[in-house]
Amino acid sequence: MNETDAWNAFLKSGSIQDYLNYKAVQNTTANLQEPTNEDTDRRTDNQTTEYW
Length: 52
Prior knowledge:
By secondary structure, the protein is mostly helical. Helix content is about 55%, strand content about 0%.
C-alpha cells in the first residue's frame, strides 16, 4: 500500500487504525529517501578569514 492509498482509506473510514497505518506507510517512505549528508559534505580544508 502506498501513501496515497493509505490516506484515502483513512479519509473513507475516519478510523484511528487507518490513520496509524497511513503514518506507518509515511514513515517507511520517508526512510527510503536518500539521507542528507550535511556533516559529511563539508570540506576538510575549511579555512576562515582572519580579521586583525
